């Protein structure tokens, strides 16, 4: 369904399990950044009432996920570490088109967001199916479902609001780029690492 070119090797979960505090901290900050990204999209595209309404709900969900991860961190006697740079997301950001019309940039921002949600969904699925910790397995299964909904919402709005961009063609370019990019990741205990 996601169309990703490369699946995450389940052995990545062994790396994650070696440092649960790190994956949880990274995950918490990923949720915060997702909410911030959504607020940015709303800020620059507030003329689209349906988009604002739907994305406000997703932004609230992302903050709830941040809180859920933070609660897990506290329950386990761990600490929420400092915010981490997400090199994967930074590389995707560089691929995003920032020239062209305002609408072109808007559509690419939606596709950028869909790409992050798609990979996060896939990673959460791998975690839910392979992590030994049953509580975390269930948690990541629930988040996988949520991320899938976010992914489809961003794609829906890209298709709805495009003026000139061939969304399916551009999405295929995103998938190709991400397929090459992700070969550099899956080696650290971070959501996208």
TrEMBL record:
Q: Pfam families, alphabetically?
A: MiaE
Question: Could you tell me the superkingdom of the organism this chain comes from?
Answer: Bacteria
Q: Which ranges of the sequence are coiled-coil? A: none
Under which name does UniProt file this protein? Answer: tRNA-(Ms[2]io[6]A)-hydroxylase
